[in-house]
Design a protein that fits this description.
CATH topology: Alpha-Beta Plaits
Distance between the termini: 58 Å
Strand order of the largest sheet: 1-3-2-8-5-7-6-4
Shape: globular
Largest sheet: 8 strands, antiparallel, barrel
CATH architecture: 2-Layer Sandwich
Order of helices and strands: HEHEEHHEEHEEHE
Number of domains: 1
Number of helices: 6
Radius of gyration: 21 Å
Length: 240
C-alpha cells in the first residue's frame, strides 16, 4: 500500500505544480503576438566594455539553453545615436511568464552589462497583423527603420482602422506593434527591415503614414538602426 501511495504522489505532484504555475515545460517557447523592446545607453567612453560585457551575457543565455531569440541593434540615425536596442518577438503571455532562469539571468546581467550602461526603457508590445505585412518577427536585415508614433488620447481605434484600410498598399516588410505597457500611451512602433540604407531612402515615399491619421498623431520619431549580429542570440541561419 505504501508503494501505491508513493506512485500516486509521483504522478499527481507534477500536475499540481503545473496547475499552480499555469505553465507547462513548453511555455517558454510558446508562440504568440507579444514582443519586448528595450533600450540601453552605453556609458560615455565605455562602449567597448559595454559591447564585450553584453556579448558575455549572451553567452550565459547560450549556456542556459535559452529558447528565446534576441535581436540587437545600434541606433545609427536619430537623437539617440549609438544607443543600443535589444528585443525579442513572437511570444505568448505564458512565454513571457517563463524566461530562462530569471534570477541567474539578472545576476549575470548585473555583472557584465549594468556597470557599462544605463537602462532607459523597457516596453511590451502586441503585434498587429491586420495593419502589417510580415510575420511579426522581423527579418534580421542590415538596416531597420524604426518609427515611434505617439497618438493624442482616445485616438487608438480610428488610427488602427485607417491603417488597416491601407494594408494592401504596403510594400516590403512592414510590422506594426501596439504598446501594452512601458511608456506614454497610446503608442505604436513600426519596424521596416531593409537590406541597405539605399533601400530605405529609395522607399522614402512609402514612409509616410496615410493622410487620414495625421490629425491623430501627437509625435512621430523615425530612426535608422544597424543590426549587430555579434550582439544577437538565437537567430537561425534562414533568418540571418
Amino acid at each position: 500500500m505504501r508503494h501505491r501511495w508513493l506512485g500516486i504522489v509521483a504522478v499527481v505532484l507534477p500536475t499540481i505544480l503545473v496547475a499552480q504555475t499555469g505553465r507547462g515545460p513548453d511555455a517558454q517557447s510558446e508562440r504568440g503576438p507579444y514582443a519586448r523592446i528595450a533600450i540601453l545607453r552605453p556609458n560615455d567612453g565605455d562602449t567597448v566594455d559595454f559591447e564585450a560585457g553584453y556579448i558575455r551575457h549572451l553567452e550565459w543565455h547560450r549556456q542556459a539553453k535559452d529558447t528565446w531569440v534576441w535581436y540587437g541593434w545600434t541606433i545609427w540615425a536619430g537623437e539617440r545615436q549609438r544607443w543600443f536596442v535589444y528585443a525579442t518577438f513572437g511570444h505568448s503571455a505564458a512565454s513571457l511568464d517563463s524566461p530562462v532562469a530569471p534570477a541567474e539571468d539578472e545576476r549575470d546581467n548585473i555583472s557584465n552589462v549594468t556597470p557599462h550602461a544605463q537602462y532607459l526603457g523597457n516596453a511590451l508590445y502586441e503585434y498587429l497583423p491586420g495593419l502589417s505585412r510580415g510575420t511579426g518577427e522581423p527579418q534580421p536585415t542590415a538596416k531597420l527603420e524604426f518609427t515611434t508614433v505617439d497618438l493624442v488620447p482616445g485616438s487608438a481605434k480610428p488610427f488602427e482602422t485607417t491603417l488597416s484600410a491601407s494594408q494592401s498598399t504596403l510594400h516590403g516588410e512592414t510590422l506594426w506593434y501596439r504598446m501594452v505597457a512601458g511608456g506614454i500611451a497610446p503608442r505604436y512602433v513600426r519596424l521596416r527591415p531593409r537590406a541597405s540604407l539605399s533601400a530605405i531612402l529609395d522607399g522614402s515615399s512609402e514612409q509616410a503614414l496615410p493622410d487620414g491619421v495625421k490629425h491623430l498623431i501627437a509625435k512621430t520619431t523615425v530612426e535608422i538602426l544597424n543590426l549587430r549580429p555579434t550582439m544577437c542570440y538565437g537567430l537561425s541561419p534562414t533568418r540571418q
